[in-house]
Write a structure and sequence with these properties.
Mean pLDDT of chain A: 94
Radius of gyration of chain A: 13 Å
Strand content of chain B: over 45%
Strand content of chain A: over 45%
Shape of chain B: globular
Largest sheet of chain A: 7 strands, mixed
Structural class of chain A: mainly beta
Low-confidence stretches of chain A: none
Largest interface: A-B, 25 and 24 residues
Oligomer: heterodimer
Number of strands of chain A: 11
Order of helices and strands of chain A: EEEEEEEEEEE
Distance between the termini of chain B: 41 Å
Mean pLDDT of chain B: 93
Structural class of chain B: mainly beta
Number of helices of chain A: 0
Radius of gyration of chain B: 13 Å
Helix content of chain A: under 10%
């Protein structure tokens, strides 16, 4: 079974520029998550989709971050304009209630450095 | 709200047992998880426990859950140098089953 795919793996941008990350979840997983992990911290949930609807975006900085999940499959996370404090790993994950433990499976992450 | 806390660092000698602890606040948790993260890598699921269980064993891993005290622990028997990593506990709770992660415990295994 293919895992969660993310791209790009690494991105360096200047502050005030924009960046977009792409995620393809595990096939059949209805729930998709974007987490932000700052160095030395645990992952923080930015947004959670159930199919193509948002169920939790309470910690998403909506003035600069946006995310969509068209057709309930792939998702993109965009940051515009980026700030220095957005330097982090952006982790996409997916889960299915039908799987044991309703477990979240993570991608390898997209590493963002804002300079 | 959800809050998950862990101690930051643990050092053990190779061959000893490691015990990593976690406390959480949401009493409506359904599942609790342990993930492992090696440098530069994503999060790898180690094990999970359903909230109506108090213990789960999986080879070298033993998970203990004290629901009354909202305390979760992960015991790694015969710890190896390959176990050196950051370990995160996480809880799933709430109407939309949000998963909240702890701050992570860095395990250092001394040869």
């Amino acid at each position: 079974e293919a895992g969660v795919a993310q791209s790009p793996r690494y991105k360096i941008i200047e502050k005030r520029q924009s960046v977009a990350f792409w995620c393809n979840p595990i096939s059949g997983h209805a729930t998709l998550y974007w987490y932000q992990q700052i160095l030395g911290q645990g992952p923080k949930l930015l947004i959670q989709f159930q199919n193509n609807g948002v169920v939790d975006d309470s910690q998403l900085p909506k003035d600069r971050f946006s995310a969509e999940r068209l057709k309930g499959v792939d998702s993109t996370l965009k940051i515009q304009p980026a700030k220095l404090e957005d330097s982090a790993v952006y982790l996409c994950a997916s889960s299915s209630r039908g799987q044991a433990g309703n477990t979240i499976y993570f991608g390898e992450g997209s590493w963002l450095t804002v300079v | 709200g959800e809050d998950v806390e862990q101690s930051l660092f643990l050092s053990v000698r190779e061959g000893d047992s490691s015990v990593i602890n976690c406390t959480y606040t949401d009493s409506s948790s359904t599942y609790l998880y342990w993930y492992k993260q090696e440098p530069g890598a994503g999060l790898q699921l180690l094990t999970y426990i359903f909230s109506n269980m108090d213990m789960k064993q999986d080879q070298r891993l033993t998970v203990l859950l004290n629901k009354k005290d909202k305390h979760l622990s992960l015991r790694i028997a015969d710890t190896q140098t390959g176990d050196s990593a950051i370990y995160f506990c996480a809880e799933r709770s709430g109407g939309y089953q949000k998963v909240t992660f702890g701050t992570g415990t860095k395990l250092q295994v001394i040869p």
